[in-house]
Amino acid sequence: MIKSMPDKIASVASYCVSGTLVCGGGVSQWMHDLDWNQVAVVSGIVIGIATFLVNVYYKNRQTKAYEAALNRGYKTTPPQED
Questions:
Q1: What are the residue ranges spanned by the domains of the chain?
Q2: What pTM, to 2 d.p., does this model score?
Q3: Distance between CA atoms of 53 and 41, rounded to whole angstroms?
Q4: Residuewise pLDDT in 10s, the chain (82 residues)
């Protein structure tokens, strides 16, 4: 059983390298055909939307924390816009 282990490792490595080369070639061809201006525009839009959603999430958490502090009787100043 121990003697056959290197054969299994070699065969798994061979299949992995083969699969990587096939997939890598496909990805390389796909990336070559991309229009990078469109990638930049779409990336900018996605990052802008993600930034907006993260901002809304944290502002909501800040508001809830402020309301919870008021309900507990703490007198604090309201959250300010930067």
A1: 1-33, 35-82
A2: 0.56
A3: 19
A4: 455 556 677 778 888 888 887 777 777 777 778 888 888 898 999 999 999 999 999 999 999 999 999 999 888 887 776 6
